[in-house]
Write the structure tokens for this entry.
Amino acid sequence: MCRHLAYVGPEEPLGRLLVDPAHGLYRQSWAPRRQRYGTVNADGFGVGWYAEGDPVPARYRRAGPIWADLSFADLARVVRSGALMAAVRDATLAGADAEAAAAPFAAGSWLFSHNGAVTGWPHSLASLTGGLSPVDLLSLEARNDSALVWALVLARLRAGDDMGRALADTVPEVAAAAPGSRLNLLLTDGVSIAATAWGDTLWYLARPDGGTVVASEPYDDDPRWQEVPDHTLLAASRTDVQLTPLKEPSDASADAPPKEPRT
């Protein structure tokens, strides 16, 4: 359970998106308005952002609550970016690898976050590890459900899937193995955003001055915020947002070919 946000658009200070809004991610750490599971997101936070001319994002993550980090608001005031991802965390299981378990996770140009929980973790996803190489498993950044879901997504990205396809194939696979899981996934490469609504809230804002925000919940009361229907894939650029229904687990498993381990 957590709250997360991604943005692509004109360059601006991180704080204008995360700290300054009346109901921004900073405030959502202790007073979310639309969070369905949990009430306080105090088990870590993180932000990843892209600098112009560098496709590999920087990250700043901590194990404690965002409001207790006296440096973050100052950093967010001066660091500017045209693309970012941030999350505040309410841990499903306490004590899982400290800041390593805080989103965003990263690999190459990608940033990833998971809002939700995998039911029956870790036993429920044991059968899916056969699709990962030993290196993938040994390289998990943390010992939690989000890190393994990220490994499943990342394997598809490295195999050549685009971001939307990687999420759209991973979510029904995990949902079939662990029914009742909440799988709101968020992914960006600094140019575009892909996200899923699966069991929790997801909204987007196409800003009139350019840029797109995708978030667990609105950070203000702008009437242009749009809620994403459950079981939907979102694909967004700076100027466009597309919504596509996701396959149900039974449909996805019927279409899926036999798994081969990735090397």
In short: The chain has one domain: 2-255. Helices lie at 14-18, 25-28, 72-78, 134-138, 145-158, 163-177, 249-255. Residues 203 and 243 are 11 Å apart (CA to CA).
